[in-house]
Amino acid sequence: MSTLAALLPAVPPIIGWAVHARWLHGRLTTARRDPLTGLWTRDAFTRRARRLLRDPRAVVVLADVDHFKQINDTHGHAAGDVLLATVAARLTHGATPGGVTGRLGGDEFAAVVVDRDGTMADRLHTLARVLARPVDAAPEVHTTVSLGWVRAADHPGEDLSALLRRADEAMYAAKRSGRSGPRRARLGRLLGSVAGRRPGRRGAA
């Protein structure tokens, strides 16, 4: 029996394993993606964000949809779903190139972007205006999105969790101010648990 003939019976199992491996990889990737928005889920986002934070130019952004419960109550949950998907797509576009975005839950999103040219403040002001545009498929569905952000270099040694808390403080300061536009996290120590001072979370779509 030739060497080729001896190998041929082994080919179908190898192909079968390759197909199975690709199928399994696809299933795992899908499980790490939020089914509504296509963004990374919290755990998957965290793993990728931590890698980007190795770059001292990294910026952490937190985004929260304003008046989301009102959107659901007025236009219905289907409209809320469309709004969330639209915010996710626009945030992802704003985080490119090289950034990572995730849905942390409900109407709250996060991104980590490497600010290579030092223009992050201007980019986020532009992003805030883009996020406030009506949904293309439903012009009556629109609202503002509060943004908080922090430069990793301003707080050396802090991990993703701490930087997210700082961005969270800044985001809720922006929300309370009533002015559209991103708010940069202040320097100094964290104020504590912002969650304890928040109003009730708006319902997820």
Automatic annotation (TrEMBL):
This is GGDEF domain-containing protein. GO terms for cellular component: plasma membrane. One of its GO terms (biological process) is cell adhesion involved in single-species biofilm formation. GO terms for molecular function: diguanylate cyclase activity. Residues 56-187 form the GGDEF domain. Signal peptide: none annotated. The lineage of its organism: Bacteria, Bacillati, Actinomycetota, Actinomycetes, Kitasatosporales. It comes from the Bacteria. Residues 188-197 have a biased composition (Low complexity). It comes from Streptomyces spiralis. Residues 176-187 have a biased composition (Basic residues). InterPro entries: Diguanylate_Cyclase (IPR050469), GGDEF_dom (IPR000160), Nucleotide_cyclase (IPR029787), Rev_trsase/Diguanyl_cyclase (IPR043128). Residues 174-205 are annotated as: Disordered.
